[in-house]
Design goal:
By secondary structure, this protein is an all-alpha fold. 73% of the residues lie in helices and 0% in strands. The chain contains ten helices and no strands. It has helices spanning 10-29, 36-43, 47-53, 57-77, 86-107, 109-118, 122-139, 143-147, 153-172, 179-191. 27% of the residues are buried. The model is unreliable at 1-8 (pLDDT under 50).
C-alpha cells in the first residue's frame, strides 16, 4: 500500500492506473522495450509517483505476475461439488477447472500473456498446473486406468499442459473456440480414449 495513503484514496487509484498502463505496454511492447518513462506518461503521473509505489520496473512486473497467479490459485484451489468417482469424476472436475481457467484467461488476456507465457514465473505456473493435474489423478484413483494407455503418467500430464498452453494461443485467444468446447475437446483427447484390453 502507498505510504501515508488510505485505501481507495487517489493514491491507490494512481497505483492501479500505473498497473493497468504497465500491463497494456508490457503486453504490446514487451518487458524490455517498455521504460518507466513510458508507463508514467501513459498513466499521466510523475516519475516520483511511480517510485512511491514500486521500487523498479521489475517490482511492478512482479506485482502483475502475482495478480495472474492469484486468479490462477483461486481457480485451481476451488472446491467443486463431489460428483462421480474414478475416471468419470476426474474427467468432470478436470473439465470444470480447465473451463474456469479458460474463462479467466479470456477475461485477462494481457495478464495471461505475462503470467503464463512471458515471465520467468510462468514456468512456475506451468509446473503447478502439472502438479495440480497429477494430484487430481491420484485423488480420483485413476493412475492405474491411465497406465493402461501404455504411457507414463508424468509424460501424459506434461503433454496435456503443453497442449493446453498451445491451444490457449491458437484457439482460445484467437476466439476460434469457446472455453467449454475447448476444455471438453482437450480433456476428451487425453483422458477418454478407448483402453486396449487385449
Amino acid at each position: 500500500m502507498a505510504r501515508g495513503r488510505k485505501v481507495n484514496s487517489n493514491g491507490e487509484r494512481s497505483k492501479q492506473l500505473l498497473l493497468e498502463k504497465a500491463l497494456a505496454l508490457f503486453s504490446e511492447k514487451g518487458y524490455h522495450d517498455t521504460k518507466i518513462s513510458d508507463i508514467v506518461k501513459a498513466a499521466n503521473v510523475t516519475q516520483p509517483t511511480f517510485y512511491l509505489y514500486f521500487e523498479s520496473k521489475d517490482a511492478l512486473y512482479t506485482d502483475l505476475n502475482k495478480l495472474f497467479q492469484q486468479g490462477f490459485d483461486e481457480i485451481m484451489g476451488k472446491q467443486l461439488e463431489e460428483g462421480e468417482e474414478g475416471l468419470a469424476g476426474f474427467v468432470s472436475e478436470l473439465k470444470q477447472k480447465i473451463q474456469m481457467l479458460f474463462v479467466y484467461i479470456i477475461d485477462n488476456p494481457k495478464l495471461t500473456k505475462i503470467g503464463l507465457f512471458e515471465s520467468k514465473q510462468s514456468l512456475v505456473v506451468k509446473s503447478r498446473l502439472t502438479q495440480q493435474f497429477t494430484h487430481l489423478i491420484h485423488r480420483y484413483d485413476c493412475a492405474h486406468i491411465l497406465q493402461s494407455y501404455c504411457a507414463d503418467i508424468n509424460i501424459v500430464v506434461d503433454s496435456f499442459v503443453g497442449s493446453l498452453e498451445r491451444l490457449i494461443l491458437t484457439n482460445l485467444l484467437e476466439q476460434k473456440k469457446q472455453p467449454c468446447e475447448l476444455a471438453s475437446d482437450l480433456v476428451h483427447l487425453y483422458f477418454l480414449r478407448e483402453v486396449n484390453t487385449k
